[in-house]
Amino acid sequence: MESISKPHNLGAILRTCDAVGVLEAHAVWSRRPKRAGNAVSAGSRKWVGVRNHASVRDAITALRATGHQILAAHLSPRARDYREVDFTRPSAIVLGTELYGVSDEAVAQSDFDIVVPMLGMVPSLNVSVATAAILFEAQRQRLDAGFYDRPRLSAEAYRRMVFEWGYPTLARKCQERGEPYPALTEDGSLASGLSAAHGA
User: Whole-model pTM?
Assistant: First the structure.
């Protein structure tokens, strides 16, 4: 998300991320970081992390380092229909501001542009609606490939996520103190008396 300025759009994007199983969004802000609108996000910001970057270059560099293809949602002569993209590859979709779209810098650093074809008179969709169309196509491809049939996170990443979701206050205290998270039992609960010992 490159300088998405309206909280309701941010909230809608995060809600769609949660709906299709995206665990983290990346953001570059023109000013201070925005907060998603509570009503629109429906609490999804608790489940979808937002990683902030100082510049679009920093964001794209970080995503390339983890093997992502970079796709700019941008109408151009080189743009491909979003349904023709292989979303079974690690993919990052660059979304631009509501008024101006994706910046020239982001377009230059992307692998290619993608577009949702429009048959009416208006040339583009609202940024959150375009995001939903693209992410649900990615979900369709990944469902067909069996990606949702089994965990794809490492065991350690899965345990960390379950602990942070299940015990957010305790997780925050452990982070503040620089302590490792306590172990969970097989059913996801804390050992007896552990929460009291950690000040939860």
Answer: 0.83
